[in-house]
Design the sequence.
């Protein structure tokens, strides 16, 4: 194949390590200058391709690109944008081909979750369906850990580590305060559909040092009486407890617990989080003093406490994506295959994109304890290696040295395109 | 002075480094076994003294005590309990003397903030007012940074570092999402009366790398129009912004912004945080998509990202408290005196407790920018050294190795006492 340029873009919610994938991808592409010309990044994901808003990554130094490995967030901007099918919006695909042609792009790398895998799959079919030769490789990323086939998703391990560490720290805090003050701490974590992130809170309790933790999973319908019973039991035994609650927890009637129909003084409805709702349930049901926190973006941006496994895997996904493309693969995604737990060993596998796109991997039922409030040993065995190791960013004056790239635009060659 | 035992207790909200003070104090006491017998810790602060619930710290190994240096929270339990004056509740003071006598306690160390300094002051007067010879030294601790005389308070630097790092990380995140999704991230931080912690969010923006950050201080009456104007301005310039809001922000009429009179579907009032309130104001006023987080206990328990300056100072406060007592001082508190900013140098000073108790140090007016939404260079100069350096705890299997002491009770010699 003649030398072609590559397109790379980041999609969906960003993570602490998606830039590590970008780093692995760009560094590896730079090692193959005979086959890959330039890596053009899409500014704000696929939107950058559609609007011909490309970033010339070669304008950033090797040092800056290397710093992506320890910089959270999406360095080129991300987007929440799902392309329709070829039949529904052929114009967009024709535009993509126009842009790819104009910039001699023969490789398409898309870094995202399930929706993005679908976009990548559609692009991979351009070759067959519209006669434009392109190799599309998906680079997995999602804190939700819900991509199929791969053992785990880059981005998840670091959120899991953040939640495990934060749950441990907050539990130590509430333990100190319980005698005369707060007895229950409620931490809201991400996870609309699957309880992977909430499960990580369970890692704070270990065989060596049991911690009183109650987990509320989106997979388990919220039962107020059972919940209060469990909190009461733990507070009686330990004097305190921590509740880790998924944002997506629902009651038996399928309503989000967070949606309590709150109205402000003017009667306007207010969207609160689920943490204050759960905290109020504890106060009203048991009369216990509480505190609550909502980790929100902090959990997925927390590169300062990223998991070393996660960083290494994210980097490897970017690197392998390039290597797969250079070997002629199209419509695939590198995966993480677990080889062993103790010691933790993994290798990179490959999955066909049509088996990945739009498939959501839920948490196995046997990862949740029978009472619905904890994680099983099987779950612990799965999660533990993913939070292993620390990979601290460099610091200057007390702050992490995160990089902002120059993100120099590639001169446009085409007219405008409205999306 | 004949060899006496020491009493040590932790009081008020705990911090990431209050145990580092305990570590400094116990290790230093152990080096002076000729003068100090045992260090008895009060279980749950002064309550432990009143109820004769003492912990024999000598039952914990040197290794366990050393691990306190990197363990957040209060290892002996804290309390929120303010002793009344001698005139109002003489019984309590007589009880203290009874307990001190029974356990041969001649040194009293109390580790806390303003209220605790007041308790410590009262105990220091027992010698004079009730004829019981005791030396009372206060060990400063508070995330609120509101103790007078000392340049800063142990515990604050680590919260400040956590908030600065988290604000930086969340700002990177929202920057990535802004094109098609979230444009404003709101982070709620501690600070009922003073904006010290919120101010730390301002450190995320530096001369090298400006970040669009709006700070809402409790010192500045909330003005909705001005606030929306500032957010609008930053979003227009950068595409996004982060709002760091103190829990104690009030409107011009003196009401907490967090107290919006929210009612649930049953008409029960609900206490939410201030972050969702501010987020709603942004949505209603500017129609921008937002995310919000509430750091709550996570910020003050985050030993994993503690400031090295803070850990060293906390340790030094505990150590010096013992040395002051051994030199015969009573009714004093070690302080941190700033010697220079660049390089940051500090030394330990000494303050009389009657100048410390019940005095709240507010943030200087010239630390807040004229528009009320940012920090001045003067503030930055003050804050920057306090978040300097990292002091990571050791890890095992991905989690920090925080210690739980044995906390062996000292056999009781007296009857019960109701508090």
Sequence:
């Amino acid at each position: 194949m003649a030398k072609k340029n590559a397109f790379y873009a980041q999609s969906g919610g960003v993570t602490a390590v998606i830039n590590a994938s970008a780093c692995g991808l760009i560094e590896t592409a730079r090692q193959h200058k005979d086959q890959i010309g330039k890596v053009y990044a899409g500014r704000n994901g696929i939107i950058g391709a559609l609007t011909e808003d490309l970033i010339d990554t070669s304008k950033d130094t090797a040092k800056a690109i290397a710093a992506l490995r320890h910089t959270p967030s999406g360095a080129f901007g991300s987007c929440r944008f799902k392309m329709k099918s070829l039949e529904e919006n052929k114009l967009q695909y024709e535009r993509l081909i126009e842009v790819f042609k104009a910039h001699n792009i023969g490789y398409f790398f898309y870094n995202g979750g399930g929706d993005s895998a679908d976009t990548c799959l559609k692009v991979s079919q351009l070759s067959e369906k519209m006669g434009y030769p392109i190799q599309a490789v998906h680079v997995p990323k999602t804190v939700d850990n819900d991509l199929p086939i791969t053992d785990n998703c880059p981005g998840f391990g670091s959120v899991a580590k953040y939640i495990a560490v934060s749950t441990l720290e907050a539990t130590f805090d509430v333990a100190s305060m319980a005698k005369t003050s707060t007895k229950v701490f409620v931490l809201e974590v991400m996870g609309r559909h699957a309880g992977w992130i909430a499960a990580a809170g369970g890692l704070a309790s270990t065989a060596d040092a049991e911690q009183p933790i109650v987990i509320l999973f989106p997979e388990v319908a919220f039962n107020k009486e059972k919940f209060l019973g469990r909190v009461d039991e733990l507070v009686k035994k330990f004097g305190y407890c921590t509740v880790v609650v998924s944002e997506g927890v629902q009651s038996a009637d399928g309503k989000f617990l967070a949606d309590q129909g709150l109205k402000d003084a003017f009667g306007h409805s207010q969207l609160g989080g689920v943490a204050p709702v759960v905290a109020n349930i504890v106060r009203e049901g048991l009369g216990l003093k509480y505190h609550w926190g909502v980790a929100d973006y902090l959990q997925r941006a927390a590169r300062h406490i990223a998991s070393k496994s996660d960083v290494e895997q994210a980097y490897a996904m970017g690197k392998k994506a390039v290597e797969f493309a250079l070997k002629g693969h199209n419509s695939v995604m590198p995966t993480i295959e677990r080889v062993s737990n103790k010691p933790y060993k993994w290798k990179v596998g490959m999955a066909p994109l049509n088996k990945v796109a739009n498939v959501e991997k839920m948490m196995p039922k046997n990862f949740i304890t029978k009472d619905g409030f904890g994680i099983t040993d099987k779950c612990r065995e799965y999660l533990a290696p993913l939070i292993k190791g620390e990979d601290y960013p460099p610091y200057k004056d007390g702050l992490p040295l995160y990089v902002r790239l120059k993100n120099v635009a590639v001169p446009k060659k085409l007219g405008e395109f409205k999306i």
